[in-house]
# Entry
Amino acid sequence: MDRIYWVILISFLGSYIITGRAQESLVYQPEQMQADLEKFKTALIEIHPGTYTHQNREEFNQVMNDLMLQTSKPIEATMFYKIVLRLIANIHDGHTQAYTFGKLRSVIDSKKRLPFQVYIRNERIFIVKDLSSLEIAEGSEILSIDSNLSNEIIFEILAHYSSDGESHSGIQYWLGGPYKSFYRLYPEIFGEQSTYNLVYRDYKTKKIIETKIKGISKEVYETRESKKYLPKITTKEAFNFEINKEENYAYLKISRFFKDDYNEPENTYPDFYKRCFKEISNRNIKNLIIDLRNNGGGKASNAAYLLQYFIDQPITPAKEIVTLVDDKYFLQITDNPPNLNESFGLKQKKDGTFKVTKHELLRDLMNYDPIEEYRYRGKLVVLIDGGTTSAAGIAASLLKEYTNANLVGTETYGYAGISNGVRQISIKGDHTETAIYLPLLHAEYNIDKHIQKRSVVPDYNVSNSIHDILEDNDAVLEFALKKLLPTM
# Structure
């Protein structure tokens, strides 16, 4: 009787431990994970137009085989999510994402954050907002966390998150922002701990200090941030224009390529550009800076309208826009097809893909004539960085290809000459609470074929130092003004 009692008790405790852990991180079985990996693999092969942009079929299959091997035994759901992240990062497409839902989403969201906002430069991590209880000097450099060196940390994150192409600049930029923040991704990739061993170089004393820090919840993070720092600006103007008559230059800041939403009047940006270049012409301004830094993209046609004030020959920004599948494909797997055929006038090509023939929604395929009335013929400088994303990358590349522009800053997040940023769909796992988000359409732009598949590279590689960040000094703009624009 006693023996039976202990067997029952041990079994109960074992079940309790497993259940308790599952509340924090669920456990998936091999058959569950591998079934969903196969579903994701099929979608990436049959639907995604960029799966083989940076790898061939054999390389992709090898990646899948490796991931299948990693799921050959039960593992925690958070670990499986990291496997899906690696699968998607290997595509090197900024419009392709992995995400979670359901209980797993709650587990991920509830992870405590590192108490820092950071700035990353040259694979070095600097603290720009200290939200810990230790009063660490802003500007201090993180040397390691739990014996993981700063550059090792960045490389590991890059194995799970990627931008367009294989540029590191874009993701390193985003780690300092609100969407793919370092303070959130470090616990996600390296595992959440109650305390972390931190080694940093103090900004003021230059001494190397070893200490322990505690993770903090999202609520604590936001409360401390609001008390210690000025409120964050949650919205920003889509565009801004000003003229410095004394120094004879105009400054055009474009933060995104749609003003309010994608369905806004088509004349929104053309009308704005006309006002700008009319004033430039009337005031005889000979130097122009176009700032595309931290531009999240939008409609590439709004970049094409800008180009009209610089070109002397008509251009068609996009050579071709294609998709691998049409509505007939989706009717086999869903009752709600994405209405591709009617929206884009799809026409099947000899290779089996489908070509977009309607221009109403994708004006990248239209012809754009020069606008002679206020054509700009002066000095042009374009500012770019890792936040120059999607259509903004295309804009920078078009300006480089068809004008005399000098590009200043750091390599962009967005591709120079291709884009997979139109019409995305979600593919949810059937057996796990993981999903992928992938594009349907692929655009190829009239950019030299040798640079299409890389992000846009600046002519002058300039970035802010940590001192510039703390002093709110714009070293990139300063370089453009002092080094590239002629003095009066």
Notes: The chain has a mean pLDDT of 92. The first strand starts at residue 27 and ends at 28.
